[in-house]
Amino acid sequence: MAGIQAWLANADLVGLAAATLVAATPLVLAALGGVMSERSGVVNIALEGIMLTSAFAGFAIAFAAHNLALGLLAAILSGMLIAALHAVLSIEFLVDQIVSGTVINILAVGVTGVFYRTLLQQGVQGPGTLPIWQIPVLSSIPIVGRVLFQNALVTYLMLVLVVVVHVVLFNTVWGLRTRACGEHPLAAETAGVNVKVVRYVNVIASGALGGLGGAYFSIQQIGQFLPSMTGGRGFIALAAMIFGKWTPIGALGASLLFACADALGARFQYLGVRVPSQFLSMLPYILTIVVVAGAMGRAVAPAAVGRPYRKS
Amino acid sequence: MTAVVARLRTFVLPLVSVLLGLAAGAVAVLLAGTNPADAYLALFQGSFTNNNAFTETLVATIPYIFLGLSVSVGFRAGLFNIGGAGQLFLGGIFAGFVGYRLTGVPGVLHITLALLAGMLGGFLWGAIPGLLKARFGAHEVITTIMLNYIAALLTDFLVNKGPLSDPHTASPQTPAMLPTARLPIIVPDSRLHFGLLLAILAVPVVWFLLERTTIGFRIRAVGLNAGAARAAGISVGWTMVTVMGISGALAGVAGAVQVLGVSGVLTPSLSSGVAFDAIAVALLGGSNPFGVLPAAFLFGALKSGASFMQLQTQVSADLISIVQAAVIVFVAAPLMVRWLFRLRATPAAPVSITEGGLGQTPPREGVA
Lengths: 312, 368
Description:
The complex is a heterodimer. Chain A is mainly α.
């Protein structure tokens, strides 16, 4: 009994919850981007590349301008720019959406690598990181205050954006049009919706969300850019989107679950629990497969996602 | 006449795409403030003219051939196998295990068994997404991406102080392959190994399989029109499982030859991005086995020359990713190439490899 108590004290569950929320930040943002894009009918596996590019652009501008806010803005804008490329390729030139996404992921590695090397030669110092803001009063609530109200800007924005995307998707005309374009674009067009415009806007919005997620890596977490620093988190976000059944709230829940599995893995190692951390890290991927196979509730994609739409 | 034009287009479009890709890379190098001519000269030297450069290019070409074939086979059935990385790992694990554990078998037999084991590993790992798609309608793009990560973590678990790790070293790797399992070197004083001949041999074999066998006919029929194939009595579900298995087996061989021919041990860095590049190889090769061969050679040359270029000119080796990405864009977007050159747009069908949602699609024909 005493052993379990000591173990629990050691495990620092509040700390674990706080670490989970922070680690889930980019996952949630990219997954929200995925929801926006896919609900309008465009598959977005480019989120990994979008985040990587934005992590770099945010860092480069923050460094050049000595201004983190400008860096954050640059990250968002660059995410929108890359997403616009995805939109042009897949909506305008009818490139297969998976191919277009793959192209962007490869391109992101190339562009960030080439420009990072140039920056490196100028002897880059990090621009610092976004400060932790303690919300007055709220942050002193026990447990909840520590987890929710002692964070940096991107994490707060993430929490707000979950609500915003949910409201936009399910309580506005725009959201209705978006979902119509993802389910049955021809019917939407017949009802007077401009499918192309809706898809463009949603894909570019997903780039803004992914861009903010990218900013998390470079200017919120470590104040540095490192090649391939997003490390596949864009794909985990994609998994979170599916596991959350293409809804913002679901994406939040799935991202928290996946981030928690990762944070647990790290803790298990220093607590000496003999579960190989690799198996915990596998959890998001296995769960996603289970869900797309329909074994844990159905995860049904928007009906028209992946299909190019041409006015006839 | 139209046949000649069509034939010409299959050659011209990829060539134009490669040139445009190199041009796009040059623009990036210029923007980054370095000289593209220097970069490409160094790239060329690093790929072809330096000491050992040409054999190194061929060494790098080998996995691209197998993986390009792997992706192509999937494309022909309308399936997008992004799972090459995972299947390559499983091929490496199976082949590596046989390669260092199995003792007392003569050379030729040992190599054959290890290669077959690699194929089996890739086949099984590839068949999983095929089965999930056939049985539950789970989209193969999602499942293969997830299986890639699972395979990478599994490899890390096995060789990083795990059941297959070498107890005599701290670095994460298996014990060295036994000499009897090593693929022989075919050019003295180089790393060029027998895998090149196997890869070249695989090209006509895959072509024959696709074009001249019943299973190949089924694969193409499902790719062209799954509904019609089903109406004609072809089991679409089983065909999907088989295609993904074959595709996985080809990726598995890629992993096996890397372990048995190049590294001599299995490490968690076995994949290192080649599997993703292979999607570009297949697209550039038009999903045709004979097209894959030159495309793989081009990518092998880019890859092997890149590190010399980085050393020589301070231009990052990542430049080749820009070139590759641009090449795929131009191959996959014929509409855009027309627009770039202001050609009269003929209403062309979109290049669509995958249609439908990335989650569950309505279950296809059941298996078993």
